[in-house]
Specification:
By secondary structure, this protein is an alpha/beta fold. 30% of the residues lie in helices and 24% in strands. The two termini are 16 Å apart.
Length: 225
């Protein structure tokens, strides 16, 4: 039997996406999945039919929405991304068929002109309101110790970024928190399962045993029949 497919959207500015996507590809393969990495958002979403999982480890957005800093706005014509209607429909169909979605770190900044994406993920970055401190040490606390994704995992330290004041499209029950900010949650949406993990800025984040285990569990839950 051929392994189940996982579509991985990767790429964008200010992050080493080739390196972090390689970390995720390794974890997907550990679970017996066949990852397909796409830097073209529309091509990746159009490849979703029949896939078990969509992973968004990318920073792709219009670069032109309200509050966007000028350093990005000047790049919007060349680098801005807005998924095509049929690509958005493929995402809806993926969820409707029971497919899983794993959003990592910058996934909350992606697709700022697509309300359905923010609703599915459960939260979104809003320029002028959301922010993060510099990359540095973070004390992560387990907020829901009996949840399947974090049960038995102790509080841990990690070097990462803490995304602050995201706008939540729906109420989320945080599984991990730092400095009062939710870092991890899971829910069901549109017929499928969704996990958002705000950690994962760089490869060392995936080397922390507790975080690596949580990502493993997230993948397993998202593709469970």
């Amino acid at each position: 039997m051929a392994p189940r497919r996982a579509i991985v959207l990767s790429g964008g500015p200010t992050h080493d996406f080739p390196a972090t996507t390689a970390c995720l590809v390794g974890l997907l393969e550990e679970h017996g999945l066949a990852p397909e990495v796409h830097e073209d958002v529309d091509a990746g979403l159009r490849a979703l039919p029949g896939a078990a999982l969509l992973v968004v480890n990318a920073l792709r957005w219009t670069m032109a929405g309200p509050g966007t800093p000028d350093r990005y706005r000047t790049r919007a014509a060349a680098e801005g991304v807005s998924p095509a209607p049929d690509a958005r429909a493929a995402f809806d169909a993926h969820l409707g068929a029971g497919g899983g979605v794993l959003g990592m770190h910058t996934a909350s900044i992606c697709f700022d002109d697509w309300p359905q994406w923010a609703a599915a993920l459960g939260g979104a970055w809003r320029w002028g309101a959301s922010s993060h401190p510099p990359l540095g040490p973070v004390a992560v606390a387990v907020a829901a110790p009996f949840h399947r994704l974090v049960t038995g995992v102790a509080d841990f330290g990690i070097e990462d970024e803490v995304y602050t004041d995201l706008e939540h499209a729906t109420a989320v029950d945080p599984l991990l928190v730092a400095d009062g900010q939710p870092l991890l949650w899971s829910h069901e949406h549109g017929g499928g399962r969704v996990v958002y993990d705000a950690l994962g800025h760089h490869p060392p984040s995936y080397d922390v045993p507790e975080h690596r285990e949580i990502v493993r569990r997230s993948i397993a839950w998202l593709v469970a029949a």
